[in-house]
Amino acid sequence: MRHSHSRRRFLKSIGAGAAAAALSRVVPWFSPTPAPLSAGTGDGDNNEAGLPQRELGRTGATVGVFSLGGEATVEMSNQRDRAVEIINRAIDLGVNYIDTSPRYGNGGSENNIGEVMRHRRNEAFLATKTHERSYDGTMRLIEQSLGRLQTDHLDLYQLHNVRVHDDLDRAFADNGAIRALERLKDEKVITHIGISGHRDPEVLLRAIREYQFDTLLISLNAADTYYKPFQKELLETAVEQQLGIIAMKVTAVGRVFREDGITSMEQALGYVLSLPVSTAIVGISTVKELEENVRIAQRFDPYSNEQMREIEELVAHYEEEANFFKHYW
Fold first, then answer.
1. Domains identified in the chain and CATH numbers
2. Residue 186: is it exposed, middle or buried by C-beta count within 10 angstroms (0-12/13-18/19+)?
3. Residues 261, 30: contact at Cβ < 8 Å?
4. Residues 152-184: pLDDT tens digits?
5. CA distance 201 to 222
6. Which of 126, 100, 92 is nearest to 283 (CA)?
7. Residues whose CB falls within 8 Å of the CB of residue 72, separated by 6 or more in sequence, listed in order
8. Which of 35, 85, 213, 278 is the most exposed place for a label (fewest CB within 10 A)?
9. Concatenated DSSP letters for 100-132?
């Protein structure tokens, strides 16, 4: 771990008074066929299961195609032991990208992940977020996040849930969150700057055209194409800019599954991984669920255009439900 004295001094200065101080390769679609699921030993070899890897855009990092989201059991403060077991098992199975937010479980997700990062920080590309739009708010928030995560640095810090143009106006202002992120990057508290959103692709398209982000975290599932699609111009532009593209809402919090529609995680995850994304994050409830998702990722083979259309047709009659976050969040 990198514990520089300069960073420590800088972190201590974060607070209300801080305001006064105021791509060479396109992301590959898939890797060679991986080895079978391994039991894991937790000895630091964090890709012993042969999880397929992709480049995280132009960041220089390589991540597994399946990544751990900080929701579900992982965010539950009253399920600390189960959450820690899931996180440790994920790392053992080759999952090296972990995504969280201070809003997941009111800090519970960061706390649970921090229990693992205390011992295994060098095995994870660690990402969290700021839901604040101001400089001061972001500086206060990152100090809390670093404390809960038990680390002095983040690999990725993201503007969280950018929904409307006003979010961008405030974040891009002279006293906005972007200025805080840039200072944090200059001080090596964070390595990369990202943005996330799951409501309006036009807002995010404006964002990546006006600012050079390193990563883009967006909702992508088989219903996406029917309403305000993220996989059209936004995804195409992100690929052109060689951003690290991270998919979320793969299952629409479970709503993508129906007996008369998409019935398996293999269909849901396979669809998303067949798009030009770096990785897909999924919230996990149990170790068994985690292992199932890793097995799916291990045997993943990109779907043809015809197969992609067939999966989209399966969800057509309930696409609004599978796109609920675009309508109501």
1. 50-328 (3.20.20.100)
2. exposed
3. no
4. 999 999 999 999 999 999 999 999 999 999 999
5. 16
6. 100
7. 283, 284, 285
8. 35
9. --TTGGGGHHHHHHHHHHHHHGGG-EEEEEE--
Is the pTM higher than 0.85? The answer reads: yes
Q: Which tokens go with 13?
A: 């200065």
Q: Residue 6's Cα: distance from chain center in Å?
A: 28
| pLDDT per position as a tens digit, 36-71 | 465 444 444 444 458 999 999 999 999 999 999 999
DSSP-derived 3-state class of residue 74: helix
Q: Which of 216, 234, 217 is nearest to 225 (CA)?
A: 234
Which residues in 289-324 are b (16+ Cβ under 10 Å) and which e? bbbbbbbbbbebeebeeeebeebbebbeebbeebbe
Q: DSSP of 188-199, one letter per residue?
A: TSEEEEEEEESS
Q: Which of 268, 225, 277 is nearest to 247 (CA)?
A: 277
Q: Which are the contacts of 267, defined by CB distance < 8 A and separation ≥ 6?
A: 222, 311, 314
What distances in angstroms separate CA 72 from CA 11, 92, 130, 138, 260, one per listed residue? Answer: 30, 20, 20, 25, 25
DSSP class of residue 261? S
Long-range CB contact pairs, 258-262, < 8 A, 24+: 258/318, 260/317, 261/314, 261/315, 261/317, 261/318, 262/222, 262/311, 262/314, 262/315
Q: Which two tokens stand for residue 242?
A: 């060689």
3-class DSSP state of 325? helix
Specify whether the CB–CB gap between 252 and 223 falls below 8 A.
yes
Tokens of 81: 């032991």
